[in-house]
Amino acid sequence: KQEVTQIPAALSVPEGENLVLNCSFTDSAIYNLQWFRQDPGKGLTSLLLIQSSQREQTSGRLNASLDKSSGRSTLYIAASQPGDSATYLCAVKGYSGAGSYQLTFGKGTKLSVIP
Amino acid sequence: DTEVTQTPKHLVMGMTNKKSLKCEQHMGHRAMYWYKQKAKKPPELMFVYSYEKLSINESVPSRFSPECPNSSLLNLHLHALQPEDSALYLCASSQEGRGQGIAGELFFGEGSRLTVL
Fold this sequence. Notes:
B: seven-stranded mixed sheet, 0% helix
């Protein structure tokens, strides 16, 4: 059974710092890995999707890497801003059979960026 | 348009009520999902529909009844719920290629906040 771990569980940084969020997974037979952002009481916003054949994806100040063989992904946030404060969730997608795919989520990293 | 729309945003119901949550997407996605999320926890998968057929039911109690009337709509019918069912219910969709191994990006709605009294 796939297990996804995110470290750290919480992180507080001053504005302007660069930071790295970590995600690890136990089963390397994944189709893709997706990073989400969730604000309190809201839905999940997709940040980056990395297919299993890719090594990294970039969007603005965000860069996500994937090392499938070692079961690791990192989300790099450059020049952090108070508006980046949220919970960041990592999820890996595996095949569940019957033409369906299933996401397994980590527990998230709660990020606070202090002005 | 990368939007998944959920209604209602908030719902309060008694344990004897019958209500429904609705989800709609117009991205042409053929996979739709219901997730349940409790406070400070990650989302938990409840149901998956693939090409309008229920393909995954994660041992969800029968008081939750999903329905997929067409490729754009997903409903979750609620009946005789318990207070512990209070949670944020999230709908998601993705484009999956049947038999092609295409694993699409999941898009989530804003959720329906359910309170059971």
